[in-house]
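Model it.
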Amino acid sequence: MALNVTMSGNSSSAKTYSLKVNSARISYDRSPLVAPMPGGVDPIILDLGQFRVKIILEGTVPVSGTESDGTNDIPSKVELEDLLTNPLWYAANITFVIGGDSYIAKIASCAFSLEASKEEWWTFNMALHSKKKVAE
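Modeled.
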C-alpha cells in the first residue's frame, strides 16, 4: 500500500500530482556551533536555532502513460523527469503533502532505477530540502 503524497507547484498553470510513495523520511538537522577552548576547558557550544529539514521519498512511477489515483494524476517516469527540468517547477516552491502535513520544498535530487521483476514500474528516490512543516 502506498502513502498518500501529493506535489503541487505554486504556478497557476502547475498541476497537482499524486506520488506512489512506499516510504517517507523527514529529518531535522541542526548545526550548533562548537568552539574548542585551550587547556582542556569545556568547549563553547552555541545554538542559534538554525535547522534544515530534509525529506526522502521512495516510491514507484509507471514506465509510460499517466495513471490516476481517482483525484490526481500519477506521473510516469518521463513526466516526472520533465517536471524536474521544467523552470515552472524547479524555480518555484513545490508543496508536498505527506500524511496530511504540508511542506514547502525544493527537489534536491531524484534517482530512478528499474528492476527486472517490476518492468512496468520505475522506482524513484527523491531528496527534498524543505522549510519546517506548514502550520495548519
